[in-house]
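Reminder: ligand-aware prediction takes two inputs, not one.
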Amino acid sequence: MSETRILVVDDEHLIRWTLQKNLEKAGYGVLLAETGEEALQKIREEAPDLALLDINLPGMDGFEVLEKALQIDQSIIPIMITAFEDVDCVVKAMKFGAFDYIAKPFDFNKVQLSINKALETHRLKREVRRLRQERKGRSGFHNIIGASPEMRKILEMTEKVANTDAATVLIQGESGTGKEMIAQAVHDLSKRGNMPFITLNCPGVPEHLLENELCGHEKGAYTDAYGLKKGLLEVADGGALFLDEIGDMGQGMQAKILRLIEQKTFRRVGGVKDIHVDVRIITATNKDLRKLIAEGRFREDLFYRINIIALRIPALRERREDILPLVKHFVDKYNEDFHKTIRKMSKEVEHFFMAYDWPGNVRELKNVIERAMILGEGDTLLLEHLPMEIVGENQERIMTGLRLPPEGISMDKLEEALVREALKMTGGNQTKAARLLGISRDSLRYRMQKFGIETTAA
Ligand SMILES: Nc1ncnc2c1ncn2[C@@H]1O[C@H](COP(=O)(O)OP(=O)(O)OP(=O)(O)O)[C@@H](O)[C@H]1O
Ligand SMILES: [Mg+2]
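Here is what comes back for the chain with magnesium ion:
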């Protein structure tokens, strides 16, 4: 760690001298200033970590210096030195942003104590900030891969939505598309990002327990309610409540949820006091809610209440540009988790990844890679490490890029088409075309004759 540097600002020579000597002995770097102007210049040019600032300075007084110093460098820690314990002065200094004050005459132990406390507080603050940022990095945009235009648009909207403070958000998409991840990002990137993000998996809670789960209960509300329990709404106060799989929720529960999110006021079970909370509601579903409404299985009023802002995440097969970046992302992750050194994948694996339809979307891709990397040795992902059940049924199509039409096709026609295609791709170069088809030049010639393909034009 670099040396902590302290600026001493006092017009009295003796004080500057004593402080300098003691501070240097305690291991700090010391800068000195006699006047406010000089102090500000030193702050601008040398960015000290902490300033011991006399209030009574000739010219610009200590308060003005304090204010300007903080404008120049928000992270500087000011500790004021007062000639005597003047309460008004001290209050004013603290209001202006001083960390502490020391009254003259002082002994150096007191100064040392105050400096230690200040540095420790600032270290903790910095640490909290770093952890918060790290958390944002982990769950915010850092780890969301979005290379396709469709996904980039979703990320752009996520950021906008995050900034519309409390608006309710509905995230739709097939299973495994990343709904929960986007929900978390909406929260993390919002002003509430440091407050709780609480998830309720709607189909996981039996209807008769829902109210208890969301609103909590008072002591003695039931025979077995021994203590007071806060509900999720209270726990999420100031933050967000994520109602996952909201499409899979019974009618009774839908009515309760609607009332709760409309009023944001409730009573604990067995309680008499109204509790009001400030909670952002984020919901997600893999169901088509409009269809459920048409079938009478989802309340229309609840739909309009949660559908204030809607994000629809496309299926992975509708944004194939994301596939390889996601593969790389997961390979990196599992290399680290499993201490592997997989750096490449075979052409077949790449073809498979790109051609497969991924009905389970990103989650399926992630699981396939996790499995392949557990099984795989060496530095290359191979087809044999992918699950047979998905590779097997798709292999032919994937390897050739062809799909047999339902009405069938004659082998001769197919062969002719392939020969023509190969010649076209190589601009009529027979050696190259033969190589593309994995046959000799003579066999290519033979086939060209058979199908009556001219040697010059393809
Ligand atoms: N764009 C992405 N970048 C990185 N990881 C992703 C991305 N999309 C999804 N994932 C990962 O895929 C997995 C599934 O994502 P998530 O749980 O958010 O999906 P979901 O839509 O909520 O799925 P389900 O409907 O099954 O609950 C998670 O491990 C998530 O981290
Ligand atoms: Mg989910």
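DSSP finds 19 helices and 16 strands in the chain. The longest strand covers residues 77-82. We will return to this case in the review session.
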